[in-house]
Amino acid sequence: MFSLKNLYAAFKHVKKNKGKAGLDRVSIKQFESNLDVNIMSIHQELKTAIYPMFRKEITKVKSGKHL
């Protein structure tokens, strides 16, 4: 899911769609100026960080409840 190949593809997709700076205020141009280091940093963080998962039950009209 968070392979280097996927992270590079995600960046290309954001750039193609003229994505804007995120919460960190880093523009696409700034991120791209150090692309390999930034991608590796994100990759490492995703491999080592623990992110909480939230589950929310939703009710579907025809088939009942799903998670």
The largest beta-sheet arranges its strands as 1-2
Over all CA atoms, what is the radius of gyration? 17 Å
Main β-sheet description: 2 strands, antiparallel
Order of helices and strands: HHHEE
Provide a count of the helices: 3
State the secondary-structure class.
Answer: mainly alpha
Shape: extended
How would you state the average pLDDT, rounded?
A: 85
Query: Distance between the terminal alpha carbons, to the nearest Å?
Result: 20 Å
Helix fraction, binned, reads: 40-55%
Regions with little confidence, pLDDT below 50 for 5+ residues: none
Number of strands: 2
List the domain count as a whole number.
1
Share of β-strand residues: 5-15%
